[in-house]
Amino acid sequence: MDILGLLKNMTITHWSFYIVSMLTLFGALGTIMSKNPIHSVIYLILTFFSLSAHYIMLNAQFLAAVNIIVYAGAIMVLFLFVVMFLNLREENEELPKNSILIAASIVGGIIGITLIAAIRQTQIEKVNPYSFNTKTGLVETLGSLLFNKYLLPFELVSVLFLIAMAGAVMLGKREKGERHF
Amino acid sequence: MQLTNRSKKTDKTALTLAEKTYLPGIAAGLGITLKHFFSKKVTIRYPEQKRYLGPIFRGHHILKRDEEGRERCTACGLCAVACPAEAISMIAGERVKGEENLYREEKYAAAYEINMLRCIFCGLCEEACPKEAVYLRHDKFVPVFTSRDQVIYGKDQLVEDMNNRYERDAWTKEEMTKLWEKQQKVITQ
Amino acid sequence: MEAVLIIKGIIILAIFALSLGIAAYETYFERVVAAYIQDRVGPDYAGPAGIFQPLADAGKLFFKEDFIPALADKSLFILGPSLAMLTALLTSAVIPFGDSFIYEGQKILVQGIEVNIGILWVFGIVSLGVYGILIGGWSSNNKYSLYGAIRAASQNISYELAMGLAIIAILMMTGSLSIRSMVEAQHGFNWNIFYQPLGFIIFLTCSFAECNRTPFDLPESENELVAGYHTEYSSMKLGLYLFSEYVNMFISSAVIASLYFGGFNYPGMDWVYSKFTSIWGATVGHNWATVIGICVLMAKIFFFIFLFMWVRWTLPRFRYDQLMDLGWKALIPLAVLNMIITAAAQLSGKPLWIGLILTLIIMLVIFLPAIKKRTVKA
To answer: Which tens digits make up the pLDDT trace of C180-204?
Structure first.
């Protein structure tokens, strides 16, 4: 009866939080469980999408939109693109040897226990809902923070991107005498 | 070597910078299509509005009667011989007394059949006929059929109806051009 | 409060129905425009002037055999068209179709939701739109479908960049991501097209590419790929794909009209507003002025839909390498240039003059070669 009372007391925010969380977990589990790589990628897109829903519930609309544009919209399209080109087949996959499976499950279990322990140990800072600035996640706040307090890291990141871009161009450039097709 | 003066010389000089943006070409193309958008449409809405096919169109066959309503056909079989598709067959009959108002000659076609699946509408039967009996109508198509029983046309479908006689609109070239101009006017209205 | 919520619901429903209804009639207009451009008359049998043609088309699609290939990935095969339609319809939520209605002293915006990330929302959903094509093409288990899907993906990614850069120039002028504030900044005849002629051309080209419309309809190029990504689709699944393209066209036209052509603003709107309020009073006059604004926006949207069709029946399809060259080597550098020009113009304090000079240059580029050719001929 306790659960029923809990359900009755849940607000619409609670409901949406739990539904979106379930979707996120479903997507994340589907990503690692599905055998077909294409299905994996699509589950991952679902995960990103529901993560964006979480951001919106935290009133971080800009972050949500950018997450959709950059991750769900661009990077995952490229992922899907590449996976489709590779044309991986389900039947080609064979389960690795037993010894590897055992080793993998031990390592995974230890990491899982460590993470759970770490989460139990951490003190999560409670936010006071009355004094909390609701505009924290909005574009204006984010922009002024990026261009004032965190200007140097922001510019450094852009330099990093420039280097990556130049590197990609160098890799993609046709060398003398080389033919691609 | 220039064979006709209708060929157009293509300009193969390098594109200028403005032309390389494609924008002038696109604008010119859009202009052309817009002109056509507002131009008069050439469509003839077929089942309601029919184009005149000309006085020598070869359509539905007809076995003509003469002015007194007698069948002209004498079952000589020249049309059947001339027919490249072997679509025509007939049985001759002898006129008996009292049938003079039905048949012009002493011999007549008791049965006259055209297989419309075989017929290629070449009009050779029309040319072969010495009695000016068989014609291909210019104003009527052989209708679409749905079963093989409907394909073989007998005398009931071929012989001319005296209440609705068939007249060709024009026999000479001059008459034809005059007619054509008249019909064009009707269509454009 | 209840009544306000109901009116808001009605507005949202109306926007939804409008995008579906206009998309349905776009199929009819497409055929009529194609016919008129080709000197034909187009569909005119179903009802007066053929206006029931979309219903007939939809009925035909519903009654066709719904075929799923044996080796297709069944769940993804169904997911593909659904995603295409879903993403197409989501975008209309943030577009301001009109100013506001006043009911019992409360202002109700003629818009699904007013969020301060409006344009990013449009952008994000449009970038998701390619998944419908990609998934549908792959799951058909047909090489032509896959080619179509892959073309769609690379094309959309390439043109999104230039589109985003073109939007950034608009953002610099408005200082907001909300489409409503962008529209309100273009009050009267202060439209962005006068400031951003280059940005407009880039954005227009990219929206053609994003909608997979000719001259960028390589994903479904009939003469190379059978029918592209929807080769294996039939019945209403195919219908959803075709329909989503038309919904996308409507949304793109709405976004172009809002970003560059002032949305629901029109010259002399203040005069109309003051006249209406003096005739009917503040509330009713305001509502009628809003209705006029909605009609003006609709007229602009219809013009751009016509432009989409006009271009489709004028230009031939690009070759694939030309498409990539145009996207990466022409539009992106131009968009960056446009950004720099806009920044300089904003700082110089005379953005309108610089915009008008740019417009003049573009006009010269478009019309000067034609003039030159004519003088050569004479």
So the answer is: 888 888 887 788 888 888 888 899 9
> Is the pLDDT reported for residue A46 higher than 60?
yes
Write out the two tokens for A78: 């490229």
Whether residue C124 and residue A72 make contact (CB cut-off 8 A), yes or no, is yes
C128 to A85: CB separation less than 8 angstroms, yes or no: no
CA nearest neighbour of B26 among C196, C355, C326: C326
Say if C102 is an interface residue toward chain B (CB within 8 Å): no
Region B61-162: CATH code: 3.30.70.3270
Q: What count of CB pairs under 8 Å joins B to C?
A: 56
**Which residues of B fall within a CB distance of 8 Å from C310?**
30, 33-34, 37
| C10-47 pLDDT per residue, tens | 888 888 888 888 888 888 888 888 888 888 888 888 87
Q: Distance between CA B7 and CA C49 in Å, rounded?
A: 41
**Residue C45 forms contact with B (CB below 8 Å):** no
Q: Which residues numbered 118-177 in A keep a CB inside 8 Å of some CB on C?
A: 138-139
Token pair 């579906």 in the structure block, residue: C20
Cβ contact C366–B27 (<8 Å): yes
> Is A102 a member of any domain?
no
Chains A and B: 3 or more CB pairs within 8 Å of each other: no
Q: Cα distance from C176 to chain A (closest Cα, Å)?
A: 9
Alpha-carbon distance of A29 to A45, in angstroms, equals 12
Q: What is the distance in angstroms between the Cα of C248 and the nearest Cα belonging to chain B?
A: 22
Residues of chain C in contact with residue B43, where contact means CB-CB under 8 angstroms, are 39-41
- This prediction has a pTM of 0.79
- What is d(CA A6, CA B158) in angstroms, rounded to the nearest whole number? 91
The pLDDT of residue A88: 58
What is the predicted pLDDT for the residue at C378?
A: 36
Confidence of residue B187 (pLDDT cuts 50, 70, 90): low
Structural domain span for residue A76: 1-93
Question: Is residue A118 predicted with pLDDT exceeding 50?
Answer: yes
Residues 6+ apart with CB under 8 A from C301: C22, C250, C253, C254, C257
Number of domains chain A is built from = 1
Model pLDDT for residues C139-172, shown as the tens digit of each residue: 888 888 888 888 888 888 888 888 888 888 888 8
* Residue type, position B29, single letter: G
Confidence (pLDDT) at B8: 67
Q: Which residue of B has its CA nearest to C330?
A: B21
Amino acid letter at B12?
K
- Rounded to whole angstroms, the Cα distance separating C313 from C214 reads 8
Residue C154 forms contact with A (CB below 8 Å): yes
- Chain-chain contact of C37 with B37 (C-beta, under 8 angstroms): yes
CATH of the domain at A87: 1.20.120.1200
Q: How many CB atoms lie within 10 A of CB B3?
A: 6
Nearest residue in chain C measured CA to CA from A62: C117
Q: Do B33 and C366 touch (CB under 8 A)?
A: no
Q: What are the boundaries of each domain within chain C?
A: 68-377
Please list every residue in chain B whose beta carbon sits closer than 8 Å to the beta carbon of residue C311: 26, 30
Higher pLDDT, C315 or C376: C315
Q: What mean pLDDT do residues A39-53 have?
A: 88
Query: B20 to chain C: which residues are within 8 Å by CB?
Result: none
Cα distance from A130 to chain C (closest Cα, Å)?
A: 23
Residue with the bigger pLDDT between C239 and A124: it is C239
Query: How many angstroms separate the CA atoms of C159 and C324, rounded?
Result: 9
Of A36, A65, A139, the CB nearest to C124: A65
Q: What are the residues whose beta carbons fall under 8 Å from the beta carbon of C93, sequence distance 6 or more?
A: C12, C15, C112, C113, C121
Strands B107-115 and B88-94: antiparallel
CA–chain centroid gap for C348, Å, is 32
Least confident of A23-32, B76-85, C369-378: C369-378
> What integer pLDDT is reported at residue A95 of this predicted model?
65
